[in-house]
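Handoff note, outgoing to incoming analyst
You'll be picking up this chain. Sequence as last confirmed:
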Amino acid sequence: MLFLIIFSAILVCVLVVGLFSYSTSKSIIKTKVADSSAVAIAQSKGKLDLMFKNYEALSMQILLDKTVQDNLVKYEQTTDDYERFDVMKKLSDSIQSYILGNSTVVGAAIIPVDGTSASVTVGSSSISTEDAKGTEWMKTIVDGGGKLIWLPAQVKGYSGSASEPTIAMGRVMKNTVTNEGKFIMIVEIFLKEFGKQLEDLKLGDDSAVTIVDKSNNLVYSKDPALIGQPSPIQLPADVKSGDSTEKLANGDEVLAIYNQFASVDWKLAGSVPVNELVKDAKKIRNATFIIAGIAALLAIGIGLLVIRMVAIPLVSLRNLMNEGERGNLTVRSTINKKDEIGQLADGFNKMMTQITVLVAQTNQSAQDVLATAGELSDASKKTSISAREIAVATEEIANGATSLAMEAEKGSDLTSEIGQQMQQVMQANQEMGAAATEVEKASRQGTAYMNSLIEKTGMTEEMTRSMVEKVDRLKESTRSIRKILDVLNNMTKQTNILSLNATIEAARAGAAGKGFMVVADEIRKLADQSRQSIDVVGQITETIQKEIDETVHVLSDAYPIFQEQIQSVKEANQIFLTVQGQMGDFVGSLTSVTESISMLERSQVVLSDAMGNVSAVAEESSATSQEVASLSNEQNNISEGLVRLSDKLETVSTGLKETLSRFRT
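Most recent structure output, in case you need it:
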């Protein structure tokens, strides 16, 4: 059995080492592939970033072109159909000079934001105002406020009639003078141009390279049917670059490597199936299982051999030992071998022979002990009866001495208790004297404090009266401030009227009055600011006046309270003087009581000494009687213990005889 356990442990170790090697190889391969793929993804991302920047530069050139800006202004201002057609042609020619030189661009369109005019299209793009009105991409460009917006791919283009997928960039075309944007520009680009940059990017067998937008939808894929669909790989939105192992909907694992573009919030992502990466590492796992199977077969064969040579003889010896345990001492082993099993069988036979001899000797000794125990038990019982009678007599003597000692002790305790109570009365009397002295002292201090409090309360009353007068004067000052603010407010209104008249006169003067109009407008603004400041100051002044009124009201209510406080302090001062006189008389009475208690204490000491002598004699007699009784009880206990030991010895002897009768010799 032990051999099988060892082989099982070895088999488990082989499996663990093999599977660990497979797991380590798989992890190393994934790490190496991820590192090399990340470099390839980063290089391809750099190429595409350069393309994005070139397209951004193209849109900026069109936006800043003076001819384009002038034609947009004319297109917006003109109402004649022929002039608008001529402006559209010029605007188309200006933009076409940028578009026709770039074969990767499908076309471009200038679309009015309000949707009331026709769009201007260049190249193969045929996006009309009606096509763009109300679309999500139109709203995204307008919300960008002049910032370049990259739009995801469309299988049929943004006009809906293209022969292949396109992506687009758009921005609001703001007027460089007024900074108003009433048109948007959208430029469509062939999606295959990005695919050409990714043709040489190979990450491994069955790998895939895609471009994913911030919503995790596919912008580019080799399969056009997947464009615009959710990406099968969920990339983290808050991480710009990295790699991770993802599980697809069908349960397959893929290694995903991704890197975000610098110019647009899209990511270039590559994926490689994990099974393709680790298909060579699976050989280690398969070899591990084969070796484990061979080891298992070998362990089974060796185990059968061990069972035949070791286990069967050991089972035979175990059965013989079980028979001996049940009392059969005549069993012997018949195994004749030269190995360790044979030596074990020979030792078993010798052990059973020695046990047989020992049991026979023990049986004879048990019979002798049983006879001796009977005689000892009879003698112990007689001794126990005599000791019990002596103990009863001694106990009666001890009880009488104990009663006398208890009565003497009660008298002594009563005397001690009287003495303790006298001490407590004297101590309490002394504490009352000290407390009375302290109370008298505190009364004198209280009287002094009350006099000081009367003086300070009078000063507080004077300060309160002075505060009321000052608050009244402050109230008059705030009324004066209100009058001044009313005058300033009227001046501000007049200034505002003057500035309005000046503005009217400057408008009548035309171009010559523009400078004066600016001055008049500034004066009007200053007048408005002054009016606002005066209103704020007026509100603050009104708040101050309200708080002053509340303060006067509070002080008026507090003044009678101060008057009542002064009267209460004077009455408390008179009470302190009365308490001081009464405590002086109380201290004299306590002194007389203390002298009487001292005389009573001396008498109690004499009584306590007498009771102590009586108690000592009674206790000595009781102790002697108790010592004799204790010796009698101890002798009685020894006799009873001797009887119990005799009974126990007899019981053990009987049990030993019954136990030995189980063995057959």
